[in-house]
Structure formats: structure tokens, C-alpha cells
Amino acid sequence: MIVDRARPAGRTGLPPTLRVRQRRTRRHAIVLTLLAVLALSVAGYDVATVSATHRSERTLTATRLQLQDTRATLARTRAHTVAVTATRDDRREAQVRTVGEIATANQSLGSESRTKFFQGVSIGTLNTCLHGVAQAVTAISNADLTAAVSSIDQASPSCLSLDGSTTGLVYPYDFPDPFILPVGGVYYGFATNSVAGNIQIIRSSDLTHWTTVGDALPHEPSWAAPHATWAPSVLQRGNTFVLYYSAIYAPTGEQCISEAVATQPQGPYVDDSTLPLMCQTALGGSIDPTPFVDADGTPYLVWKSQGSDGQPSTLWSQQLTAAGTALVPGVATALLAPSLGWQGGVIEGPSMVLTGGQYLLFYSANNWETANYAIGVARCSGPLGPCTETSSQPLLASQPAFSGPGGPSVFTDAAGNLDLAFHAWLPGKVGYPNSRLLFIRQMSVAGGTPSIDP
User: Fold this and answer.
1) So what's the pLDDT on residue 151?
2) The CATH number of domain 168-452, selected from 2.115.10.20, 3.30.70.20, 2.40.128.600, 3.40.50.300
């Protein structure tokens, strides 16, 4: 047998170089396969990682949104708590004031100095007053303010008639910054917020006997801070009534002017504004709005700028649109600034009237929480001024019967008389939290100069 020694058993007939290449090729294939598997593993890991990261980001975003909602809810809860607390405190203060007023009435009714007067008074009138006062005290002790107000309303005419006073006191309860609106033989009185709500309103048919109607503005606009409304006034335009008032612009904390609309004088008035009607931020804010209608029917709005950075408080005027719900584009005109010593550097609460061909601008001046507060008057050439003082002294100042008169509202009654409504403190009870009561006095105008009738 012949043996081929050049081809060992079990080997192919490939040359050695080819066998080497074959082995290298196999190794390369194995390496490439491993690299491919590794690449796929890495890619899969990256996809999983990215997916997990996205899920984490979505979870984090949802958590952040939930946290924002929680914070917003907490802020609303805190604001509601503050509002409820403020309302509770206001009502407690109102209870204290009312109890004090009733106690004063009781002392007055029991004083010996009234004995002779009571001898000529109807026993029925006296009983009505005392019974109403007793009911009010009982209602207050039971924290029933609605019943207390109702009892006070019913007792008020009888108690006022017992007073026998000619000072002009017509509503012996807290009624600051009054405005009187005559409508068809009925008089509506509006005043700064008190226990009755944002803007309290009362009603009378004779300017002497008044009953509580309620809250003329149940809800403030979204931009206004709660429970901080002042100095209301109303403009009638046909069958529509426009209420002007001051409120705090919550984003800045400044006082601004807004308007609300109703289809009846007692409201409720609705303010759906997103921004104030007037807010002179550069002048410290705006307050005390009052409408004026000229002889040709053109409406205007007069108000006060607070004053800041060395600028004094100033009275302003600007024309309103025919509907009274907006100001005519243009620049407001300054009417009057404090210039007299008795004004104490402060002037506010304007009320303009046209009588006997004369434009008269009534106003309050000095510190409202003192007996130095008083009412002055200036004469104007028109609704946009200019205006000049009629006297170096106030028209109405503190008297033995009352202190610190202010918040003038001038109107013409059903008999054609020119009347001045104002608030004032009782002597010896000046300053918050004492009450400012409602007074109404008739006026006369001679030679363009008004005077208060005796």
C-alpha cells in the first residue's frame, strides 16, 4: 500500500495559507457577531433608559402640576380664611358699636334732662322705641344680626322723634360717605361698607324714616381685594343705574375706582370688569367717585387722587360716555387742591351740583378721624373747572351736636329744595371704631354762595 505523506489523516487538502485565512475569517465573523450582539444590547439598554427617563419626566411634571394646584388651593384657602376672619371681626365690631349706640340711647332716654320732654311724648311712641331697642339687644346677644338690624330699623323713627333734635340726624347708625339718589319720590342712600355688606343701602320716602335694604354690591370684581369698598355713588341713565365705588386693586394694593350696573336703584349691582375704571397709580391711586350731569345731559365723573411723593391729594373731573360705564378718551382735568389752613393738606369726597347757573363743588377736608374734619365748597366755571374757593372757612364744621362732618352728597328733593347729606361723629365719640351717623340739612344759595339753613 502506498501512503501519501503530504496529506495527514483528517486534514483537507487546502494549503496551509488558506487554512490560516479560513481560521482568521471565522474569528472575524465571531467577533463581528459579538459586536453586533453587544450593539443591540446597548441600543436596547439606551431605548429602555430613554423610555424610563421620559416616564420619570412625565411623573415629575405631573407632580409639579399637582404641587402648583395644591399651592393654589392653599392660597385660596388662606385668602378665604382671611376674608372670613375679616368678616367675623367686622361683625363683632359692628355688634360692639351697635350695643354702644343702644346703650347711649338708653342713657339718653333715662336722663332727667328729658323728663319734661317725655311728659308731652306719646306713651305709644316711647314704648315702640324701648321695645325695638330691647329686641335689638336680644338679637345681638343671640348673634342674629339680621334680626338686630330689623329691630333697629323699626325703632329708629320712634327713637329719633324722642330726641327732639333739629341737628338733621336721620339715621343714627354707622353710615359713612353717604350718597342720596332720588328716584320717583323715593330716596335711596348708599354708604361705605359696614355690617350690611360691601355697599350698604337704605331707603326712605320722606328723608326722615329710613329702612335697611341690604348690600347693593354682593360681589366685588376679580381684581378687587375683598371687604374693602368705599364711597359709593350712583348715576341713573334711563332704566339703567351705574354704581361707582372705590376698591383696592389687589395686585398693587392701591385704591382704584370701578363701576357696576343694575336695572333697579336698589340693585343688586354687577361688576364684571377685569380692570379698574380709573386708577392714578402715579398719584397714589384714586378714590371717592361721584357722577355729575350737566344741563345738556352730558355725564361727568369727579373723584380724588390720593397724592404721593410730595404731590397733594387733588380733585379731578373727566367726561363719561353716554351710558356712564366708561370714561371718554382724554386727559382728566384737575379741579382743586388743598390751599387753605383748615384743610390740613387733605381734600377729598367731591360732590358737584349746578344750581342757579352756578357750578358748586362740595368736598371734605382735613383728617377724617378727627373733629377737624369739615365740609368746604368751591365755585367752578364748568364741570371741568377751573374751580376757586368761595370762602377761607369751611361751609360746615364741628358743632355741639356733632363732630367732624364730611362725605357731602348734594341733591334736590321732591319739594325742589337743595339738600346736603353728610356723615358725622357724635361729640366725644370721634374716630374709628365709633360710628359716623347720617345727617341731612337743607341749604340756600345766594349770590352763588351756599349756606346751611338753620
Assistant:
1) 73
2) 2.115.10.20
Rounded to 5°, angle at Cα 325 from 321 and 327: 50
Q: 390 near 340, Cβ under 8 Å?
A: no
Which helix (H) or strand (E) covers residue 227, if one does? strand 224-237
> Is 171 in a helix, a strand, or coil?
strand
Cβ atoms of 234 and 409 within 8 Å: the answer is no
Asked if 251 and 223 count as a contact pair (C-beta separation under 8 A), the reply is yes
Residue 162 buriedness (CB in 10 A; 0-12 / 13-18 / 19+): buried
HSE of 186, CA atoms in CB hemisphere, 13 A: 12
Bridge partners, 308 (sequence order): none
Q: Which helix (H) or strand (E) holds 89?
A: helix 16-110
Instruction: Map residue 163 onto helix, strand or coil.
Output: helix
d(CA 146, CA 138): 12
What is the sign of the dihedral through the CA atoms of 337, 342, 345 and 346? negative
Q: Check residue 85 and give its pLDDT.
A: 55
The Cα 251–Cα 224 span in angstroms is 9
Strand order of the sheet with strand 286-293?
Answer: 286-293, 299-305, 314-319, 333-336
- Side-chain-side CA neighbours of 253 within 13 Å: the count stands at 0
Domain ranges, ordered by start, for the chain: 168-452
Q: Which amino acid is at 286?
A: S
The torsion of the CA quartet 283, 345, 370, 342, rounded to 10 degrees, works out to: -150
Report residue 132 as a C-alpha cell.
325695638
Provide the pLDDT for residue 139. 73
Nearest to 359 by CA among 323, 317, 413, 397: 317
Q: Name, in order, each residue with C-beta under 8 angstroms of 397's C-beta and a sequence gap of 6 or more.
A: 342, 374, 375, 405
Task: In the chain, count H helices and then E strands.
Answer: 4, 20
**313-368, pLDDT tens digit by residue?**
999 999 999 999 999 999 999 999 999 999 999 999 999 999 999 999 999 999 99
Task: Please name the residues in contact with 294: beta carbons below 8 A apart, sequence gap of 6 or more.
Answer: 300, 354, 382, 383
The C-alpha atoms of residue 16 and residue 12 are separated, in whole angstroms, by: 10
Higher pLDDT, 23 or 44: 23
| Distance separating alpha carbons of residues 450 and 454, to the nearest angstrom | 13
Could you tell me the three cell numbers for 136? 335689638
**pTM (2 decimals)?**
0.70
**Alpha-carbon 74 to chain mean position:** 24
